[in-house]
Amino acid sequence: MKLALITDIHANREAFEAVLEQAHLHGAERIALLGDFVGYGADPAWVVERVQDLVAQGAIAVRGNHDDAIVLGPSPNLVEDARRAIAWTREQLSPAQIEFLASLPYKVEDSGCLFVHANAHAPTGWEYITGRSEAVRSMHATDCRHTFCGHVHHPTLYHMSSTGKIADFKPVPGVAVPVPGHRQWLAIPGSTGQPRDGNPAACWAMFDNARATLTFHRVPYDHETTGAKIVAAGLPRTLATRLVDGT
């Protein structure tokens, strides 16, 4: 089965639409949504509604820290721009949409894979996986051979051998990477709605469990329209300008 991995949409309709279209063209049979559907962007209601539709059709979805902030209130760790976006977003969502976000689990295990927003060892602690030590801690917390995470806004792939040797590398878009089950893998597809690796193109990845391959993808989208919506909504202008250079 071909599984599309999409995360950190952040209320960016144009990026989400572009990624869903490309995932369909690449033959995705199921979708896994790894959280942070809202925050930063100007189309939270549309994005949440689309996520609801996809879940109704069989998609996997987990809750991210920005989704959590809508339900429980922003944590002290959120920067001021993010807090302002959360306050604005709450006013755009219906009670049913907020209830939907509240119903999402923090992690899902399915077919030997773990799906979680931040990490496997403390899914509600929102610790970032920024290097090998955090990746090892996460992989030690699960028996699943493949873990798929969001939270970090640039694509990375970690793997650990049966002897505990850890390695990582930056994937090349469009190139299938073998991810056999005799190793443990932790993949971060990168952000669909707010990439931060210097490339403004939206991120997503495709896991083919029949072939045991993982392919990372980048999709250009109309980020100028997205940015204009953010400014028109009265959200911080920095949330629009960072889409241009992917930072």
TrEMBL record:
GO terms of molecular function: phosphatase activity
Protein name according to UniProt: Putative phosphodiesterase
Cellular component per GO, a single term: cytoplasm
UniProt-listed InterPro entries: Ap4A_hydrolase, Calcineurin-like_PHP_lpxH, Metallo-depent_PP-like, Pesterase_MJ0912
Annotated PANTHER family: BLL5683 PROTEIN, METALLOPHOSPHOESTERASE
Organism annotation: Sphaerotilus mobilis
Calcineurin-like phosphoesterase domain sequence ranges: 1-206
CDD domains on file: MPP_superfamily
Coiled coil: none
Gene3D superfamilies attached to this UniProt entry: 3.60.21.10
